[in-house]
Amino acid sequence: MSHRSRIDRSVAVVTACVSVFAFGAASGQEDAGITEVVVTGSRIKQNQFDAPTPTVAVPIEAIQRSGSTNLTDFLRTMPALVSSQDDLQNTGSQGYIGSTGLNLLNLRSLGEERTLVLVDGRRHVAQLPETAAVDINTIPMDLIERVDIVTGGVSAVYGADAVSGVVNFVMKKDFEGLLGRVQYGGADAGGARDSYASITGGMNFADGRGNISGSIQHTERGRLQASDRSYLRGANYTSMKRNPNDRDDDPAVPDEVPLNDIRFFDSARAGAIDVDFDGAPDTLPDGSAFEIPTFVSPFYAQGGSGTPLADYIGDLLPDAKTTVASVFGQFELSDTVNFFGEAKFVRGKAKAYMQPTFDFSLFQSADNPYLPAAVAAQIIPGAAAEALEDDTAPDGVLVSRDHFDFGVRGEEATRDTMRFVTGVNGSFADRYNYEVSYTYGQSEIDALALNNRYNDRFLAAIDVVTDPSTGQPTCRSNLDPTALPYQPFHGFDFSGPLSFTPGANSGCRPLNIYGEGVADPAALAWIMLNNEASSRVTQNVFNAFVSGPVPGITLPAGDIDAVVGVEWRREGSRSVPPMEDQMGLTFGNVILPTDGTFNVKEAFAELRVPILADLPFAEMLQVSGAVRVSDYSTVGSTTTWNTGLLWAPVRDVSFRGTVAESVRAPNIAELFSPQSQTFEAIFDPCDVSELANGTSYRAANCAAILGALGVDPVGYIDPNSDTIPGVGTGNSGLSEETARSYTFGAVFRPQFIEGLALSIDYYDINIKQAISTADAQDVANNCVDQPTIDNVFCDSLTRASGTGAITSFVVQPENVASFRTRGIDFNLNYLLDPSRLGLDADIGTFRFALVGSRLDRLTTIPTLGAEQIDERTTADLQSGTYAPKWTTTFDTTWEFGGLTVNYGFNYFSKTSRYTLLTLAGNPDQASRANIYYDAQETHDLSASFDFLDAYRIYAGVNNLTDQHPDFTTIFPVSPVGRFYYAGLTVSFGNR
Question: Model pTM?
Answer without folding.
Answer: 0.90
